[in-house]
Design brief:
By secondary structure, this protein is of the alpha+beta class. The chain is built from 41 helices and 46 strands. Its EC number is 7.2.2.-. The chain crosses the membrane at residues 74-93, 234-256, 262-282, 437-457, 990-1009, 1021-1044, 1059-1081, 1102-1121, 1136-1158, 1170-1195. It holds the Pfam family Cation_ATPase.
Length: 1257
């Protein structure tokens, strides 16, 4: 019996708003529960009200069942009537609350609604759909059940017979993913296609075609095969926007102003808001239409194979998992994910990966019968939705067939589209702080309301007037235009990026780019040129690698090396042009051979073959000899994980077939017979890789002549790629792009770390890192060679200082475990030239370099050392796509520890008390901001994992990453960072300006309330629209500074520096406004008018406070519109500068010599003394000088920073990266160069030669 602890108890249930005391318990994920005994599961699960879906993934959901409650429903609508519909508006904002108020928890089997909590704390509710099938018991199939299966044993026979006639399908959809009810487990499970749990053999055996009944049933379960981005109508968008809290707040504000007789101001705000709303609706719909056009596929028909081998044409929207489709010979756009079962296909996957080079897809082979099929593992056999099939290759009358494995939003394309429609919450500190600060402003507004109520009541105002004035305080302190103003900097930056050929599909990432601390680069095609030049070949002679030959045509035409170069590739002819991988192109073009696509004259090879290669000129061109032609019988495509590719070929007239393979030298060497690997293999490999050449090894073997063509199609890859004979090396020259070195130097000068993650050889990667400046001349490289446990020996790390000088010295070969399991196979490891030195000789001037294999060992056996490796690691070679993503994740974890300093605690408590889900927003608060730049394809995972992923692609926009650059070099990286810094500083400046603008007006109004007066209608209009709106929207127009500096812009609004800046500016504003008012009162000509209420707006008090506050708004706009080092100087922002000058001139005119008609409109009093007017201007000038001195000199100074750190008791850095960096800088005994570190259960131990082991530190 399984322990109840696996399910939890009532006390174990989360103590949030959706916890209950009904005695139900938390249910595990379907994959876990399905392993239990059926009876045990049924007895427990049918009473459970909640379960976990997608356990252990980013899409993990806690699912809670609810059903209607008549009593709660009546009570709810009673409250709606009592609140005059206000409750409905609140429920619109918080739909999960409505579920709780109108429904009660119940077992999942009875639920009509489910509430879902995601891993980020967000709550969602979905309706459970129950479909009654009319066919009765005949319709029972997968995911369809009869109700009687849930009936207890005490039900009579009549009821049972009645129930059996009712057949149901029950499910709910969440974010385009369907979760269906599994009656056998009494729980929901995610609807999957054929991508989980099936072996390759099962797919071959089971899926030969569906019957029409099976297809119709699956269509009911899976729904239509379509990725539809719904574009909402303008009417729907209008009501959604108008019910947004921001617009509801504005509507309430307009009503309030109208009731207070501010008709002109209210009318102008309505006009501006309507204009803003119209633009927003247009942009929202335009973005939706753009995304729909990007992912839309034309509905066409496709040929499917039925169960009885009949064929039928069906709409692509009716495809379901299990359908067998025939791929048209002229190609098509894939409408689903399908695994290729026969024939080959040439595919352009640029839509998904950003990689424009066509790839060849080969059929899933029966030899992989026991291997579990997954689209990611078997992507070379999988045709992905949205990709373009350029050509197909088939044998004779055999059609190119594929089995549909996923449809709709479950496909790879659908998953990417979902990531755009439902992005993860971006836990950027700036956004959390802005929300906390708005909450803080709300608290200030509350204090202001209390004060204004007291003053107004003390002055004898009516209750209605007191309510209006008190509520008006809220509209002043929390400015309605703040959300719109916050996006200005990002919008300008996105526009500038687009002009430079950089497209962004996630604008919030632009601000995050301003905080980048590290950028990971792919090597080939990113740092180096995409194209490779063949430098030469190094064949094997007398068991040694001979002298390099730079002209391959000097070798005999029928030599195995030349045949390998002619056949071992994935090239194809498209529109009469040879296309394929650039490496393969250069290799093939260097030997002067040609490719012929399949034709009628292929019977001479005894079987039909897809491709023929032959030399342009050859010595066998005589009438009595057959032409020298080679047929490529089968291809095993290149795999990043396997680091190789191979082909089966047959030479015309030969008795049997041959195998040719090429790939990473260290990998090919492990697959070759030991005695065929040249004696000087390691010396030559080191010599070429140290010079930065890309080295490819070539091998071959002959197959048994009895193997037929059909047997060749079923032979396993492991059998083919074993016992090879080493042929030699291909030396490819991969030059750095001219822009690479300057960009790397610029990034390093700005103290932005640069890291290389590549699939290439480690010595080649180190050489390129030296050439481009990632590793400087005085810095050394320590090779981290990690090995997994071997029998009784634990996992270990060997630390070796690399000798990066080009040398022919021979080192003792090191052994690495081969993929081969036979004892007679050699265990070979790529070699590095290293020397053993004392660790004191490298302290402070070293970096780590390691391979993907070592990285994997560190993850599993040395997790305590991995952060140190990540801090000093520069070169990560032989990395698989998944390992690149894991590297980015590990680098992101080097961020801040999630602890709050004293100044943040109060604001955090306020933030949480107001109901904001603070816990869901701190996801990435402490993450180390990491960027990734690659050319798509194998980098897609890392590009999406990084906070700022930049894909170098010719496509205008790709779903592969947030940023796409049409400029095919890394110059786009500093551009994105500079624009990100400019946008971030602009957002800071606009936010601080809008916050202080509200506080300036808040202070002004409180002063005037005290004097029983207030600004006039046109005064508010002049301040809010003419001054504030103009400068707030032009502040962000300043372009990014052309140079990167070492210091990053601040990322926290509630840091002591910003808090002090805002508070001191508020005090200064208050002092000068109060000073101007007191100076007014001291004048002999001043007389306070007698008035009964605050409706008299034409007073000396309103005039003077209006004058001084107008200067303060302009002053704040100037000092918060900062220039270098993140933005260009203010004078380069011509529209903003002109606006400031004109507004300043207009304000001076109003103070010194207001025209009578302007004074009449604004209700300005006539000041009798001109000297007094000049004095007001002088006070404003002094205010300006004090504010500039404070903001430009005092707050940025190091002395102030030290004082702030002292006050916040900051002695140690909170940044995990800095802590580790400090430890490494101060350590005299780490890294233990020349020593061996062993993995133990309690920590990492290292030993040096025969010395006792001790803890590494």
């Amino acid at each position: 019996m399984t322990s109840p602890n696996h399910y939890g108890t009532v006390n174990d249930c989360p103590t949030d708003e959706f916890s209950n005391n009904s005695g139900y318990r938390l249910l595990e994920d379907a994959n876990t529960v399905s392993k239990r005994q059926p009876t045990q599961v049924n007895n427990i699960n049918q009473y459970l009200d909640r379960q976990i879906l997608n356990k252990g993934t980013d899409e993990e959901l806690e699912c809670v069942g609810y059903q209607d409650s008549l009593l709660q429903l009546v009570f709810f609508y009673l409250l709606v009537i009592l609140t005059v519909g206000l409750l409905l508006l609140i429920m619109y904002w918080k739909p999960s609350w409505k579920v709780k108020m109108t429904k009660r928890t119940c077992p999942l089997k009875r639920a009509d609604t489910v509430v879902l909590r995601d891993v980020f704390g967000g709550l969602h509710f979905e309706r459970v759909v129950i479909i009654t099938l009319t066919d009765g018991p005949k319709a029972v199939g997968e995911y369809v059940y009869m109700e009687n299966e849930s009936v207890g044993p005490d039900i009579d026979d009549t009821t049972t017979l009645t129930t059996r006639a009712q057949v149901f399908l029950k499910y709910f959809d969440h974010r385009q993913v369907r979760y269906v009810w599994d009656q056998s487990l009494f729980m929901f499970s995610r609807l999957r296609g054929l991508e989980t749990g099936l072996t390759c053999g099962a797919i071959h055996d089971r899926y030969q075609g569906l019957s029409q009944e099976e297809q119709a049933h699956k269509l009911l379960v899976y729904g239509e095969n379509a990725i539809v981005v719904h574009v909402k109508s303008y009417v729907t968008l209008f009501f959604q926007e108008i019910l947004n809290p921001f617009y509801v707040f504005q509507i309430c504000s307009v009503i309030l102003w109208s009731l207070d007789d501010y008709y002109i101001y209210a009318s102008c705000i309505v006009f501006i808001s309507a204009l803003s709303l119209g633009v927003e609706l247009y942009e929202t719909r335009k973005q939706s239409e753009t995304l729909r056009q990007m992912v839309a596929a034309a509905e066409t028909t496709i040929t499917v194979v039925r169960q009885n081998s009949d064929i039928a044409d069906v709409p692509t929207t009716h495809l379901v998992p299990g359908d067998v489709i025939i791929i048209p010979s002229k190609g098509c756009v894939m409408a689903c994910d399908a695994v290729l079962m026969s024939g080959n296909a040439i595919v352009n996957e640029s839509m998904l990966t950003g990689e424009s080079v066509p790839v060849t897809k080969t059929p899933l082979i029966p030899s992989e019968v026991e291997e579990i099929y997954t689209p990611e593992t078997h992507k070379r056999h999988t045709l992905f939705c949205g990709t373009q099939i350029i050509q197909t290759r088939y044998y004779g009358d055999v059609k190119v067939k594929a089995v549909v494995v996923r449809t709709g939003y479950s496909t790879a394309k659908g998953d990417l589209v979902r990531s755009i429609l439902y992005p993860k919450p971006i836990g950027f500190k700036f956004y959390q702080d802005s929300m906390k600060f708005i909450a803080f402003l709300g608290c200030i507004a509350t204090l202001g309301m209390i004060y204004s109520i007291f003053i107004l009541l003390h002055n004898g105002e009516s209750v209605g007037k007191v309510v209006l004035r008190a509520l008006d305080i809220i509209t002043i302190v929390v400015p309605p235009a703040l959300p719109a103003a916050m996006t200005v900097g990002t919008a300008y930056a996105q526009s500038r990026l687009k002009k430079q050929g950089i497209f962004c599909i996630s604008p919030p990432r632009i601000n995050i780019a301003g905080k980048l601390k590290l950028v990971v680069f792919d090597k080939t095609g990113t740092l180096t040129e995409e194209g490779l030049d063949l430098w030469g070949i190094v064949p094997v002679e007398d068991n040694k690698l001979a002298v390099p030959t730079q002209n391959p045509t000097e070798l005999p035409m029928d030599s195995k090396f030349i045949i390998a170069m002619a056949t071992c590739h994935s090239l194809t002819i498209i529109d009469n042009e040879l296309t394929g991988d650039p490496l393969d192109l250069k290799m093939f073009q260097s030997i002067n051979w040609i490719i012929e696509e399949p034709g009628r004259d292929t019977a001479k090879f005894d079987s039909l073959v897809p491709t023929i290669v032959k030399p342009i000129k050859h010595s066998y061109d005589t009438s009595d000899m057959a032409p020298f032609e080679i047929g490529i019988v089968r291809q095993f495509p290149f795999s990043s994980n396997l680091q190789r590719m191979s082909v089966l070929v047959r030479i015309l007239g030969a008795d049997g077939m041959e195998v040719y393979a090429k790939g990473a030298p260290e990998k090919i060497a492990t697959l070759c017979l030991k005695h065929t690997v040249p004696e000087n293999f390691y010396i030559s490999l080191q010599r070429f890789t140290k010079k930065g050449y890309r080295v490819i090894a070539v091998a071959w073997k002959s197959l048994d002549s009895k193997i037929s063509w059909h047997q060749a199609q079923r032979i396993s890859r492991e059998h083919v790629e074993s016992d090879l004979i080493f042929l030699g090396l291909l030396i490819m020259e991969n030059m750095l792009k001219p822009q690479t070195t300057p960009v790397i130097k610029d990034l390093q000068a700005a103290e932005i770390r640069t890291v290389m993650a590549t699939g290439d050889n480690i010595l080649t990667a180190v050489s390129v890192a030296h050439q481009c400046g990632m590793i400087r001349s005085k810095e050394r490289i320590i090779m981290v060679n990690a090995y997994p446990p071997d029998h009784a020996a634990p996992a270990k790390i060997e630390w070796e200082l690399a000798n990066t000088e080009t040398s022919d010295e021979l080192m003792a070969p090191r052994r690495e475990e081969s993929e081969e399991t036979n004892e007679d196979k050699p265990e070979l490891l790529e070699q590095v030239s290293s020397v053993v030195v004392d660790c004191e000789g490298v302290a402070g001037y070293y970096h780590f370099a390691l391979t993907g294999r070592s990285f994997s060992v560190l993850q599993h056996h040395f997790p305590d050392l991995l952060p140190r490796i990540c801090v000093r690691g520069v070169v990560f070679a032989r990395m698989s796509p998944d390992q690149k993503s894991q590297l980015v994740e590990n680098l992101q974890e080097l961020g801040f520890t999630l602890e709050l300093f004293d100044g943040e605690i109060f604001l955090t408590l306020i933030f949480k008390s107001l109901g904001f889900p603070f816990h869901s927003l701190v996801l990435d608060l402490g993450s180390y901001c990491v960027g990734m730049c690659g050319d798509g394809a194998n980098d897609c995972g890392a590009l999406k994992t990084a906070q700022v992923g930049i894909s170098l692609s010719e496509a205008e926009a790709s779903v592969a990453s947030p940023f796409t650059s049409k400029v095919q070099n890394i110059e786009c990286v500093p551009v994105v960072i500079k624009e990100g810094r400019a946008a971030l500083v602009t957002s800071f400046g606009v936010f601080k300006y809008m916050a202080l603008y509200s506080m300036v007006q808040f202070i002004s109004v409180l002063i005037l309330y005290t004097m029983r007066t207030n600004f006039s209608d046109w005064m508010f209009l002049y301040i809010d629209l003419v001054i504030t709106t103009t400068v707030a929207f032009l502040m962000g127009h300043t372009a990014a500074y052309p140079f990167l500096v070492a210091r990053r812009p601040p990322g926290s609004l509630v840091s002591p520096t910003n808090i002090f800046s805002i508070i001191i500016h508020i005090i200064i504003v208050c002092v000068f406004q109060t000073g101007a008012f007191l100076y007014l009162v001291s004048q002999k000509w001043y007389s306070r008018p007698e008035q009964k209420d605050t409706d008299n707006n034409k007073t000396y008090e309103t005039t003077i406070v209006f004058y001084i506050s107008c200067f303060q708004y302009l002053m704040l706009a100037f000092i918060f519109s900062k220039g270098p080092p993140y933005r260009k100087p203010l004078w380069t922002n011509v529209p903003f500068l002109i606006a400031l000058i004109l507004l300043l001139a207009l304000t001076l005119l109003l103070v010194l010599h207001p025209f009578s008609f302007i004074a009449k409109i604004l209700l300005l009093m006539d000041i009798p003394e001109f000297v007094f007017r000049l004095t007001i201007v002088g006070l404003a000038a002094i205010n300006f000088l004090v504010a500039v001195l404070l903001e430009a000199f005092i707050i940025p100074s190091r002395s102030f920073t030290r004082c702030a750190n002292t006050l916040r008791r900051k002695k140690e850095p909170r940044n995990k990266y800095k802590k580790i960096q400090r430890e490494l800088d101060n350590s005299q005994y780490w890294p233990p160069v020349g020593e061996i570190t062993l993995a133990t259960g309690q920590g990492s131990l290292f030993s040096r030669n025969n010395l006792p082991m001790r803890l590494s530190s």
